[in-house]
Amino acid sequence: MMTTTIMNWPPSLNPLANLLHSVVDFPIIVSLLRNSHRRSTIAPLHSLRHCEEIDRENDLALYDELVSFNKFAHRQPLPSIKDFCKLLTRIVKMNHYSVVISLVQRLDVLGVKSDIYAFNIAINCFCHLNRVDFGLSVFGKALKRGFEPDYATFNTLIRGLCADGSLDQAHKLFDQMLESGFKPNIVTYGTLINGMCKLGNTTDAIILLRKIEEESPGVIIYSTIIHTLCKNRQVTHALHLFQEMTEKGITPNVVTYLCLMQGLCSSESPQLAKRLLDDMLARNISPNLQAFNVLINALCKLGLATESHNFLAFMIEKGMLPNTTTYNTLIKGYCLIQRLDKAKHLFNYMSTQGCDHDVVSYNVLINGYCKNQEIDEGLTLLKKMSKQKIDPNVVTYTTIIHGLCLVSKLEDALVIFHKMQDCGHIANVVTYSTLIDTLCKHERVNEALYLFKLMDDTHVPPDVFTFTSIIDGLCKVGEIDAANDYFLELSCRGLQPSVCTYTAMIGGFCRNRRLDEGEELFMKMEESGCVANVHTYTVMINGYCRNGKVDEANELFVKMKESGCLPDSCLINSIIQGFLLQNEMTKAIQYVDILRENGFLLDVYTEALLQNFQCCGVLEHSSKKGVEIFSQECNGE
DNA sequence: CTAGGGTTAG
Q: Does the keyword Repeat apply (predicted)?
C-alpha cells in the first residue's frame, strides 16, 4: 500500500521541515518559522527591518496555505494528488521549498496516491535549495517505482544541474532524455541556453540557438541571450539579435526591452535607450511600474536625475503611479549630482502624493547630506525619523557614522557606534570597516586593531575592505611585517585581495626600502589576474624612482600606457620628484614635458623642488627656460 | 510541475 511513497528522503535541510513533519500545531510552526527567518537574516542581510516586514507578510500567506493543507488532510475522502499539487505549487511560489518537501513526505503518511507531478515538484524544490544531488536521487526513486518521467522532470533536472554549474551533467541528461524517446522541446533548449549564458558560455549558447532555428526559438530564448550580451557589455551584438528576432516576426516583450534599455544605459547611451522606449510604446507594449523604476534608476546612475525626473510625469500620464521606490531612486539620483535641494524637495513632495517615507527614503537623503559633509542635516533627519515612528536601522547608523568620520568627528562616530548597539542594532561589516578605515587614516591603528578583534568576537567576519584598511594603516605607520601577516591571513580566510589591497601592500614595501618584495607582489598580482590601476603603478614606479632604478621606472611607465591605463597628475608629479631627488635631471625634465603634454600642472612640492634645482644652476639653459615658462603657466601668469 | 528581466539605503 506504500508503493507510492517517496521514502528514504535525504535528511531535512531545515529544522523547520522536521518540525512540520511531526507537529500539527500550525500557529506554533508559523511562529517558529518567523524566528528561524529572523535568525538567518541577521548576518547576511543588510536591512533587518525591511526583511522582517516582508517575511511577516510571507509567513501569513504561508500560514493560510498550511491551514488549507491541514483541512485537506482531514477531508474524507482525501482530495486527489492533483489538488494537493496545486496547493504545493502555491507554496513553491512563496519560495518555501523545504516546507514543500516536508509536505510531500506527509502526503505519503496520509496515504495519498502520488504521481509524477508530485515527484517533479519535489525535484524542483531540491534544485532550488541547491541540492540537485537530492533531486537526482528522487528522480531515481521515481524511476524505480515505475513512474514515467515527463518533460517537466527532465527540464527541471537540467535546470538544476545548470544552476549547480554542472553543464556536462546537464548535457548527459539531455542525451538520456533523447534515449528515453523524448525529443527535447523549446523549454529544454531554453533551459540549456540559459544555463550556458549564466555560466559565461554565451558563444555556445548562440551556437545552440543557430542549431534550433527550425524549432522556432521564441521571445524567451532571444531575451535570455540578449540579456547576457547586455550584461557582458556587448550591447551592439544584443541589438543585432534584437533586430534579427523582430525580422523573424518574433515580437519582443517588456523583458526584452528592459534588458536592452538597461544595457544601453550602462554603456552610457541613454538616448538610444529612450528611442527604444518610444519604439516599445509605439508597439503598444506598456512598461510596468518596475520597468519604469529600472529606467529611472539607470538614468540617475548616469547623473541624469533631471531627465529621469521627467519620467515621473510621463509614467503618471501612462496611468502608472510611482511608488516609494520610484521616489527613493530619484532622491538618490539628485544626491548623486549633489542637488540636495532637489532631493529634499522631492522627499517632502512624495508624502503629499501618498507615498510614505520608509527607512530607505531617510537613509538615501541622510547619505546625501553626509557625503556633502552636512552632518548636522543628517543628524536632524535622524531625529525626525524617530518622530515619524520610522526606526533607524544599521544602515542609518552606519551612514551617520560615515558622515561623522568624513568630517573627522571620530569621537562622535564612536559614541553613535556604542549607542546603536545599546539600542539593539548589531554593527555589521560595513559599520566596522567604516570606523576601522577612519581610525587607520588617523594613524590610530591600535584602536583599529581592537575593533578588528571585536569583529571576530562578535562573529562579524571582516571582508576584503576591512583587511585593506588594516593593511594600509599598518603600512602607513611602518609596521610592514604586521601588514604582511594580515595580507597572508586574508587568503587563509578565503578572501581575494583586491587591487587596493595589493596597492597598499606594494606601497608599504616600496616606501620602506623593501623594493624586491614590492616587485615580487606586483608580479604575483598580475599573475592572479588582478589588473593594476594608476595607484598601483604610482606606488611601484615611485619605488623604482626613489631607489635609483631609473630604467625600471621608465619601462613600467611605458608598460602602463600600453596596458591602457592613463597616467594622472599625481603619478607624473611624483616621478618628477623621484628623479629630481636622484639627481636625474634629464629624466626629470622629460617628465615635465610629459606632464605638460597631458595638460596637468606641477604640484606645489614638485615646483619647490624644481626651483631649488634651478637656483643651484644645475639645469641646462634650454631646459631651464622651458621649466620657467611652464611654471609661469601653472601659476596662471 | 519545466526556460528569460527588474528598482531604492552604508
A: yes
